[in-house]
Amino acid sequence: MASDTRGRILDALRTATRRPPAPRPVLPEPPELTLDRPQMIARFEGELSAQTGVVLRAADEGEVLRHLTATAHAENLATVMASTDSALAPLDLKAWGQANAVRVHTAADFADRETFRAACFGAQAGITGADFAIAETGTLGIIFHTDQPRLISIAPPVHIAVVPIERLVATYEQAIDQVFRDKSSPPSQFCFITGPSASADIQATAFKGMHGPRKLIVILVG
Amino acid sequence: MRQRTERFTTIARRELQNGLSQTFLSLLPPGFRALRAMGMSSFPDPDAAVEYARAIRASVVARLPELLEEFERRALALGAKVIWTRTALQANEIILDLARERGATYITKSKSMLSEETGLGEHLRKGGVEPFETDLGEFITQLLGRPPFHIVGPAINVPPEEIRDAFLAGAGLKESTTDPVRLGLAARLFLRDKFKHLKMGVVGVNMAVASTGTIINVENEGNIRMIKSSPPTVVALMSPEKVVPSLSDAMHLLRILSRNCTGQKITSYVSLDSGPKRDSEIDGPAELFIVIVDNGRSEIYQDPLWREALRCIRCGACLNTCPVYTKIGGYPYGFAYSGPMGQVLNPLLLGLADTRDLYQACTLCGACREVCPAGIDHPALLLSYRARAASDWHGPQAARVLLRRSLATLLAFAMTHPRLWNLGIKLTRPLFNLAARDGYIHTLPGAQGWFACRDLPAVPEKTFRERWRQDHGQ
């Protein structure tokens, strides 16, 4: 029955009288393509700050850890969930946690989805890498995979993302082209993140922290 | 969704008296225009950007079956399950079965106009699976049992006192408050518990990319990301016209959609799913069902003009600029879609017979067509519904044509003889006002048809020429 339904819908569409679409008009190139790196960084910072995202700069891993320590104090972090993707690998977050009285969990600490997601909903912050920082709109691009679980950047009330500066690109397309380069095995999910979770559904009063993080902190490294 | 399109005039009259709706609606056109203009100004050529978006949507409608097949082939290769349904009921039953088979006592939903159209929530509840709306506005309208007031802000006109009472009764609000932020926080806490233990979630789809089999969701709140991350089973509900040819088209439409929806350059979250999670991943859905709901669209597609309505990307820009919507709000339209998009879509989905007021309640000013980033010619569609309906109405055509012609001849004669015209209007003005109530003429003998969906303001005592003579002398 199911395939019959499919056939009937597609047949009805196919047999309708149709005309080919008119050729596409010319679309001007995005002006972001002409930005140099300092301009891209400025644009990224400006756009993300406008969405209340906090952008921090770090020269090296040591400075990243000092930012994390300051954030842990400011936000009173006792339990965080961290991903294990390549941007975080050089940081040894478990050791950082031990030195700063912060319990740092990773997905490997949990046997299954149930215990992992309970821990994500219980964590005070999620620390992840990001695959792209997109200048156009101050947007992070994150590819989700085994070392980058989805819940870490959406369930805890604070999201801290560490992005090596060479991952800065100008436009969405530059990120998308890389993510979908191998058409046969794209990531199960890719996500653009531009600021914390938000709503303005009651009386048009805007606020952050609707279902996801109320705070987004991005540390650009290098 | 229960349809109340036949009560258009009654509800519109009531809403015109509703102070809160009126306050919000009066702020909408200038506010939206400013936000949209600011968003669009980031394009080097905003007009070219809109034209390109319109061309993308035109190619979607023109190549719909081919794009759907390509999307399905890619999605299947990625491990998604694609289910085709002809009717709303079929889609609802399939989703209810999926929930039952997985032992889900409840599901969470994202805002999906298609699910409003199919009445999914009601079907699930009757079937013993509790549906929780998770978009804040939809969560409120669900608790209050109301239709959406606006596609982007379904409960934006609801007074916080009403929300407080609804939350105290049904959303675990502990302390009485009318602060929007604290009310939002209460909804967050209530729904977090649902996300945390979720077995199955249902989301809509903003775009389905043919060349990759990817589904794209656009949101600010994070409820969709929660639904696509936490439970082992996710159902994505889409109508056929959500398909777009390529990722680069999707990226352009993304820029256009958010700017025309809320004026944002991009929403907080845009998530692109290509199949279910891979085996080694600890979260994300192990099963991804994509349910394609036709619900009459393949029939609409048979008419080359009517199929153009399928270009719609549900941004809501037409609502915000429509002089009718911005007076009466979303309730009178009586179905999932309101404003010009509702006037265009509801008659096609529900039939012309039950939706007459919807395609009559339009001055054909064209503000919707001008703003529409999908390139829909709303006035042309509404005129074609009127023409189709007119041919089905009333008595013999010939008699009506004769009557119209004689009236026109009479009027033409009067209009070309100024003294006769002036005398005529002097004499008829008081007669018109005999029928006036509350400053409006609601009907006149012999013209009930014309007045069925229109009122005239009462005629002033003096004509313009008389007032001019009085104020400025001769």
What can you tell me about this protein's structure?
- The complex is a heterodimer of chains A (222) and B (474).
- Chain A is built from 6 helices and 12 strands.
- Chain A has helices at residues 2-15, 37-50, 61-74, 93-100, 113-122, 172-179; strands spanning 54-58, 79-82, 103-105, 125-129, 132-134, 139-144, 158-164, 168-169, 189-193, 198-199, 207-208, 215-221.
- Chain A starts with a helix and ends with a strand.
- Chain B has helices at residues 8-16, 19-40, 46-62, 64-77, 88-101, 113-118, 120-126, 136-144, 160-170, 180-196, 223-229, 247-261, 297-300, 317-321, 325-328, 339-350, 356-360, 367-371, 378-390, 397-415, 418-434, 448-451, 464-472, and strands at residues 81-85, 106-109, 130-133, 200-203, 207-209, 214-219, 233-238, 243-244, 269-273, 287-293, 436-437, 440-441, 456-457.
- The interface between A and B is large, with 78 and 95 residues.
- Strand 9 (189-193) of chain A pairs antiparallel with strand 9 of chain B.
Essential attributes:
heterodimer; A: 222 residues; alpha/beta; Rossmann fold; six-stranded parallel sheet; four-stranded mixed sheet; 6 helices; 12 strands; 31% helix; B: 474 residues; 13 strands
